[in-house]
Design goal:
The complex is a heterodimer.
Chain A: E1 2-9, E2 12-21, H1 26-36, E3 42-46, E4 50-53, H2 55-70, E5 74-78, H3 82-90, E6 98-99
Parallel strand pairs in A: 2-3, 2-4, 3-5, 5-6
Antiparallel strand pairs in A: 1-2
Chain B: E1 2-7, H1 13-26, H2 31-52, E2 59-67, E3 72-79, H3 107-115, E4 118-124, E5 127-135
Antiparallel strand pairs in B: 1-2, 2-3, 3-5, 4-5
Helix pairs in contact in B: 1-2, 2-3
The chains are: A alpha/beta, B alpha+beta.
Chain lengths: 100, 136
């Protein structure tokens, strides 16, 4: 997984992960993402350059979404390709997280 | 049949994915199926890495075979750890519990069962053998 870009604009954070969100990369990704959480009100995760996501990656978004909800902030996922969308649909992820 | 043996740790999984993808590419496999197989490899090997030998670690062997008519890939994951049938778990329900309480643990194998054409488990000669089959 290449380096994730974090772009903070006021209290809005845009996150651009690159490559695979799997069991090896997800813990590092979560750690980096969590460092940005305290100051944000909204997060947009741009999936344009994500090749695939396994349950380790899905867990990160469920856990982070919970943290954000507790602090009254929101998260949405954009540019999700159809292979990944299929995985989201399969596990009921779309009931939990906002995908645009 | 091709096979490779790794130490069952999550940092070894990518090597297996590349090893299997080479064989899928040689068959002209679609990106969609490759993504599903890659996710299945990550789910199954990370399960083995976390649970099979806990708290120590041990080997995992991956055997890849391409079958014809219909063209499909068959991948067997073999470990010598604690006997455990991952297929016995039910689908976790994500929707009816508060987010923090959702049982995400079984999510991975559920994804494997849904995306592969067949998943089977046997315990033989002290080995857990989980086999997936996917038409390509």
């Amino acid at each position: 997984m290449e380096k994730t870009a974090f772009e903070l604009n006021g209290t809005s954070l845009t996150v651009k992960p690159v490559g695979e969100l799997d069991s090896m990369t997800s813990p590092i990704f979560e750690e980096e993402l969590r460092r940005h959480l305290p100051s944000v009100r909204s997060i947009t995760v741009d999936f344009a350059q994500v090749d695939y996501i396994s349950s380790a990656g899905l867990r990160v978004f469920l856990a982070v979404d919970q943290t954000l909800e507790n602090q009254g902030a929101e998260m949405k996922l954009i540019h999700v390709n159809e292979n990944i969308m299929e995985i989201f649909e399969l596990v009921g992820f779309l009931d939990v997280v906002t995908v645009e | 049949m091709d096979q490779m043996t790794i130490s069952a740790t999550v940092d070894q999984i990518r090597g297996v994915t590349l090893f299997v993808n080479e064989r899928l590419d040689a068959q002209g496999c679609s990106q969609r199926i490759k993504v599903q197989v890659d996710v299945a490899i990550d789910e199954i090997l990370s399960n083995i890495a976390h649970y099979a030998y806990n708290p120590e670690t041990g080997p995992a062997t991956v055997r890849v075979e391409v079958e014809e008519d219909p063209l499909c890939v068959v991948i067997a994951f073999i470990d010598h750890g604690i006997p455990f049938d991952p297929l016995a778990e039910e689908r976790p329900d994500l929707t009816h519990l508060p987010k923090a309480e959702r049982p995400i643990g079984g999510l991975g194998l559920f994804m494997v069962k849904k995306t592969m054409d067949d998943v089977s488990y046997t315990y033989k000669d002290g080995q857990n053998i989980l086999t997936i089959r996917k038409k390509i």
